[in-house]
Amino acid sequence: MSGEAMLVFDEELTAYDFGHGHPMSPVRVDLTVKLARALGVLDQLKVVSAPTASDELLQTVHTAEYIAAVKRAGQDPDVPDLRHGLGTDDTYCFPGMHDASAHVVGASVEAARAVWEGEVLHAANIAGGLHHAMRAQASGFCVYNDPAVAIQWLLDHGAERVAYVDVDVHHGDGVQAVFYDDPRVLTVSLHESPTTLFPGTGTAGETGGPGAEGSAVNIPLPPGTGDTGWLRAFHAIVPDVVKAFRPDVLVTQHGCDSHVEDPLAHLTKTVDGQRAAYAALHDLAHEVCEGKWIATGGGGYAIIEVVPRAWTHLLAIVAGRPIEPTTAVPESWREEVKIRYARVAPSRMTDGNDGSYEPWSSGYNPDTWLDRSIKATRDVSFPLLGLDPTY
Predict the structure, then answer these.
(1) Which residues make Cβ contacts (< 8 Å) with residue 152, sequence separation at least 6?
(2) pLDDT tens-digit profile of 19-65?
(3) For the Histone deacetylase domain, which residue ranges apply (predicted)?
């Protein structure tokens, strides 16, 4: 990698906190930063504090009425606003909700600004990736949609085409919805099948609205898909569609809830498969848009066993200094986990897989759900982008 890389982070980003017992604990962000620091990853990154997004910036994606509702919910969290998705079974209200959520948005926009203005080549906000939030409704633990606001900022500041790739186990429905009718934004999502997992969207047939046909690419994967199948699907579709779109900049969402130990979904990836995906997206950014890459976090609810290792690998790749999978997890970090959480942390940065897969060119197998899903996406999306879906 040539060019400096950045992490946008300050401790106040962990104020995005739905409270005790909620799956989306800010502990996962805190432990990631501490693990990255213990392994020397932060020494390779320019670390800057996050600004808080203004109402004007939020309104480039969200409605003024919704922003006002979020502010009210944060002031009186015991009163739900179900019309705006606030106070539901998954997206609780909490004190200071607006400020905490706007701070996450500010971090992603700062990452986008630094990359777009040439201060750094790559930038990350691991507290971000809140991809389910809609223009006027919270959803799926997401209050404001920071990737969407960052993408809109890029468009408003001169980007002609932005590619967004989402590798969270859940469909990136909020980002897709915001830009479904905008041919300037390509949204690509690999996720567990909507027949088995929230939010129930993301079929291969969702390809973009009128005038933006081909701008949405969805790859729904069968439950149980592991590293080999997931990487087969990724490489059969993602590089081709992103190259065909020719983006000026790549924005990616790195939910690591596709891991076999994640409690909220049904894929079976390892940290090694996730690391392979991050490396592939890094290389794709260099191939298609001169390395301009903004990476966010996302889902991930095995907050000790998986998230810190996965996102530390991500930050190391952003920094241009990938960590060898066999690297030992520092004892100081493992001891803190033991003392604070009475848990035994992993001892290595690997789960023991090698990230190998059978490429699509090896042949189509119609007897597998995975290959049928890959083919369905290629058949419907490739022609819209001027590509040959032939397998």
Answers:
(1) 60, 61, 178
(2) 999 999 999 999 999 999 999 999 999 999 999 999 999 999 999 99
(3) 22-316
Give me the domain span that covers residue 21.
5-385
Answer left, alpha or beta for residue 29, where phi above 0 means left and psi between -120 and 50 means alpha: alpha
Residue tagged active-site, from 132, 171, 235, 259: 132
- The answer, as to whether pTM is greater than 0.85, is yes
In a domain, 390, yes or no: no
SS3 11: helix
Cβ count within 10 A of residue 121:
21
377 part of a folded domain: yes
Low-confidence ranges of the chain (pLDDT < 50): 1-2
Sign of CA dihedral 146, 152, 155, 156: negative
Catalytic residue check, 132: yes
| Count of the separate structural domains present in the chain | 1
- Give the CATH number for residue 303: 3.40.800.20
Q: What is the rounded distance in angstroms from the CA atom of residue 92 to the CA atom of residue 167?
A: 25
